[in-house]
Design goal:
mainly alpha, Methane Monooxygenase Hydroxylase, Chain G, domain 1
Length: about 220
């Protein structure tokens, strides 16, 4: 694909398109913040517009992923393997997909959250978004890692970032447990099908943080090697 702006990002290494992909992924997840503000206000017109924006960003991330997979050389003159980079790319991709799935299901069903759960869910979502932001920040240290030959103080900086990411993800686990308990107490007051989908959205929101932590874990593997 001569002249592709995605291919122009490659330069001498595939790190730039990998970082560009992660930027799109984080934008997808970040978009859930205003999307849920519209949902909690039952402003379905704005919610639909925001859902379409999340889907557009996910599609753009897919374009970068596709080009990176197609044009990543079998042999890299880098201190990282092709398979490790592709594994990292796949985890990033799953994070964007999950954000798109959450917005699609919530909008498609015009889901209304119990008022008593709304504030706590917003905090839970914020924590999951923070995990994605931390993953994005860590991935954007790859250029510096390459320049330093994966050594020196940059290694410590990235490991600290990954440690913070792990702490954020652990916090989301605690919040998810609390929300499940709240929903359990409300089950008898809600239509069963609504309960099923509320549990599903809680699960998927928790998976946002899980995938973000997995990105950190994959990056740590690169650093360790």
């Amino acid at each position: 694909m001569p002249g592709s702006p995605i291919l122009e990002m490659f330069g001498r290494s595939p790190i730039r398109p990998l970082e560009a992909h992660m930027s799109k992924v984080y934008a997808c997840v970040k978009g859930l913040g205003p999307f849920f503000e519209a949902v909690f206000s039952e402003n379905w017109v704005d919610a639909e517009l925001l859902q379409k924006e999340i889907a557009r960003l996910e599609h753009e991330a897919d374009d970068i992923k596709r080009e990176l997979r197609l044009h990543l050389p079998n042999s890299l003159f880098l201190p990282v393997s092709r398979s490790d980079l592709l594994d990292l790319l796949n985890v990033q991709d799953r994070l964007a997909n999950k954000a798109k799935d959450i917005a699609g299901v919530v909008l498609g069903r015009k889901m209304v959250f119990p008022e008593s759960m709304s504030a706590k869910y917003k905090l839970f979502l914020r924590c999951a978004i923070d995990a994605s932001k931390q993953a994005d920040t860590a991935i954007h240290e790859l250029d510096e890692l390459l320049e330093t030959g994966f050594s020196g103080s940059e290694i410590n900086l990235v490991n600290d970032m990954i440690g913070t990411l792990s702490h954020i993800e652990n916090n989301t686990d605690v919040q998810q447990i609390d929300l499940r308990h709240m929903l359990f107490d409300l089950e008898s007051l809600l239509p069963p099908i609504n309960v099923i989908f509320l549990y599903k959205i809680l699960e998927w929101t928790g998976e946002l943080a899980d995938r973000a932590r997995e990105i950190g874990d994959r990056l740590q593997i690169l650093v360790a090697k």
